[in-house]
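Field log, afternoon session.

UNIT: design team B
ACTIVITY: writing a sequence onto a fixed backbone
BACKBONE:
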């Protein structure tokens, strides 16, 4: 801002003070969000970005003044449809008397210190004419530089008000260019990064899949100002909606070149009729900002999630062997106890029995029967689950089990007993997906059933300490026999709120159980569901090459410690691709390591390699799971290389992973500069997870942090599907 603009802004700010105005500051260690509230006027966003000390100078620099009314449309913090506002609004109501417009103005605000790290600010907005109000609730997480925002609507009108659209947040930015990174995908290919320059108009990223909405696109996004997002420089904003249901993220570049980011529940077929005194609360939008590129965004969100939005985010995760790809539905007791024996020999700490263990009248021997009948299949497992759990414990391991409690196969006792529990659209034919239907979680009886399913499974043995909660179809052709004819639009919202209330009950009763969030892979990777879980299954695609891409994008937002990442067999079952065991382990070790194969298929040297790798991972995992992730080189840049590293919080230890995914010239080395180390410290470098020792000249040498970060390393990684892991320890 030039000097005259600053003075003009200061003068306006002063005028505003005289008119009963308040400047509202929502701040973390490094971020400021500054709002201008003036009684009876629109609430304006002055600034959202790098922390700024002197906020007195903020005026109306971004505003476009409407000639007739002197109102500004450009930077309303939470614009409703009404007045002169003509862009996509944050809020659209139809009032009890049928009036379509709403004009929200600032009323008051208050702040409270939740604890030393968190400040909560609530800003009250009021319609100019109607007894209808909005509360904007911000929580600022000081050290993590995260701000969450949610919105509550209530009214006291003489009849019901229809809420047609209610966003969780509306952020306006101004720059010469905007680059949006979002993450599209599909089953077995989730979180594919796509970056694009926004042009005038509206770019929409959304899901209408109802209850597993992260598979085709994720609500998490990056928004870089002026240039494509970089890792260690540039201004980047990130947002992610903490919601497992339909979402809609809109990126609207208006006629003045401002960008408006509107994020929240998808209004599609979801208008809610709200009686006087009722309240509607949106999910949280999780926001962060960095002036040092995406790397800082990741640190902010990982730290925040580990502390506030992930179960047991401070505890190390066990190494898992999951039975799915090793046994599918074809097992009996002996197959499982053999797997447990082998897993124990590899040093695995948790055995998870996947799908196929239940159903008697309709045995679960394939995906076409049994879902809903959560009794152990007596033919396959005559001694029950307790026997297997005890067996695992007797081998020094823990035991976990798979459930999919929101679903039912038509061939099940449950479907015959409670056809009315199935999500259905009036008299239309039911449309099975993976041979199954969705249970209607808007119905409290179904909520009880889902809770009891979890509860009863855990009651099968005190030695069950892990649940994999799956959800293998989405909601379509929706409708509920529980909701009234005029309430069907509530389905989408009430389903997710029903799901969350079950999660709440489960966590109240079972705070210590490890729960994996799975939905045909990564269908539910969102902060709304993650809060109740310890980890997620990022994809059913276990092929290490594809995982490099999926995990890279997923870990931009969601912590590596929560990313279940399993070594599977070769050729890979999803892609048919053959990859070296070392490459598969090196990729899986970048998250929460597990195995998902029939251990007996590993031979001689492979067995030794696998058990050494598990042992090594246990040594490295405090750094990988609890440290900071630095991306050194993206797989998406398509140079056939990629590399990540993890650094302990005290900078005393680091683990570097480097991969070559194509054949490079024999003379070419892979040059990488490390990040996040202490330049003044010295680190002993050891190549680990080798098949036959290290021939790397740097192995066993001591380097300064400065050298490693400025000069970097030249790694002999260049053959197709070769990889290297380096362990750095402060001397
Ligand atoms: C889904 C999951 C898999 C496995 C199967 C079992 O596809 O993502 O990991 O549990 O269901 O049917």
């Amino acid at each position: 801002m030039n000097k005259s603009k600053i003075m003009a802004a200061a003068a306006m700010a002063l005028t505003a003070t005289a008119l009963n105005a308040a400047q509202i500051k929502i701040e973390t260690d490094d971020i400021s969000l500054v709002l201008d509230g003036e009684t009876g006027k629109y609430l304006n966003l002055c600034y959202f970005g790098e922390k700024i000390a002197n906020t007195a100078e903020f005026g109306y620099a971004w505003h476009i003044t409407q000639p007739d009314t002197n109102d500004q449309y450009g930077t309303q913090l939470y614009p409703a449809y009404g007045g002169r506002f003509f862009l996509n609004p944050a809020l659209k109501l139809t009032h009890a008397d049928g009036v379509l417009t709403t004009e929200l103005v600032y009323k008051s605000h208050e702040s409270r210190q939740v604890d030393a790290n968190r400040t909560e600010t609530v800003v009250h907005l009021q319609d100019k004419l109607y007894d209808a109000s909005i509360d904007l609730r911000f929580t600022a997480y000081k050290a993590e530089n995260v701000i969450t925002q949610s919105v509550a609507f209530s009214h006291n009108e003489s009849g019901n008000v229809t809420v047609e659209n209610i966003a969780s947040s509306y952020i306006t930015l101004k720059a010469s260019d905007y680059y949006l990174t979002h993450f599209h995908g599909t089953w077995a290919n989730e979180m594919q990064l796509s970056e694009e320059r926004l042009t005038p108009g509206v770019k929409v990223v959304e899901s209408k899949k109802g209850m597993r909405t992260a598979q085709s696109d994720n609500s998490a996004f990056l928004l870089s100002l002026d240039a494509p997002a970089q890792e260690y420089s540039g201004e980047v904003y990130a947002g992610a909606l903490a919601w497992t249901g339909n979402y809609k993220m809109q990126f609207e570049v208006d006629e003045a070149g401002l960008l408006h980011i509107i994020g929240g529940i998808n209004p599609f077929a979801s208008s809610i009729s709200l009686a006087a005194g009722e309240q509607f609360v949106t999910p949280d939008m999780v926001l962060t900002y960095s002036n040092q590129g995406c790397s800082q965004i990741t640190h902010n969100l990982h730290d925040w999630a580990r502390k506030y939005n992930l179960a047991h985010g401070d505890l190390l995760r066990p190494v898992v062997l999951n039975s799915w790809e090793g046994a599918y539905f074809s097992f009996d007791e002996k197959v499982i106890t053999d797997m447990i024996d082998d897993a124990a020999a590899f040093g695995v700490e948790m055995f998870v029995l996947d799908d196929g263990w239940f159903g008697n009248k309709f045995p679960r021997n394939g995906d076409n029967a049994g879902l809903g009948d959560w009794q152990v299949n007596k033919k396959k497992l005559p001694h029950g689950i307790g026997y297997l759990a005890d067996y695992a414990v007797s081998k020094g391991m823990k035991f976990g089990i798979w459930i999919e409690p929101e679903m039912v196969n038509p061939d099940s006792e449950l479907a015959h007993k409670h056809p009315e529990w199935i999500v259905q659209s009036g008299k239309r034919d039911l449309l099975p997906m993976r041979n199954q239907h969705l249970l209607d979680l808007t119905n409290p009886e179904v909520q009880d059933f889902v809770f009891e399913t979890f509860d009863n499974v855990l009651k099968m043995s005190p030695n069950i300490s892990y649940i994999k909660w799956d959800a293998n179809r989405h909601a379509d052709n929706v409708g509920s026999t529980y909701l009234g004819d005029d309430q069907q639009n509530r389905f989408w919202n009430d389903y997710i709120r029903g799901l969350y209330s079950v999660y709440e009950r489960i966590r109240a009763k079972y705070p210590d159980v490890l729960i994996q969030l799975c939905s045909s892979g990564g269908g539910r990777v969102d902060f709304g569901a993650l809060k109740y879980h310890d980890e997620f299954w990022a994809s059913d695609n276990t092929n290490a090459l594809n995982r490099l891409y999926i995990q890279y994008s997923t870990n931009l937002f969601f912590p590596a410690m929560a990313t279940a990442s399993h070594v599977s067999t070769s050729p890979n079952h999803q892609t048919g691709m053959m990859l070296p065991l070392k490459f598969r382990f090196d990729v899986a070790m970048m998250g929460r390591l597990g195995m998902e194969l029939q251990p007996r298929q590993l031979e001689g040297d492979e067995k030794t390699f696998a058990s050494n790798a598990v042992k090594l991972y246990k040594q490295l995992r405090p750094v990988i799971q609890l440290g900071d992730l630095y991306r050194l080189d993206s797989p998406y840049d398509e140079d056939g290389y990629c590399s990540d590293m993890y650094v302990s919080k005290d900078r005393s230890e680091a683990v570097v992973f480097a991969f070559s995914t194509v054949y490079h010239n024999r003379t070419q080395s892979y040059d990488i500069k490390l990040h996040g180390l202490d330049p003044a410290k010295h680190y002993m470098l050891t190549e680990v997870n080798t098949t036959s020792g290290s021939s790397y000249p740097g192995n066993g040498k001591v380097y300064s942090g400065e050298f490693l970060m400025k000069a970097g390393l030249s790694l002999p990684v260049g053959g197709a599907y070769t990889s290297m892991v380096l362990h750095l320890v402060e001397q």
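LOG NOTE: The chain has a mean pLDDT of 95.
NEXT ACTIVITY: expression trials, pending approval
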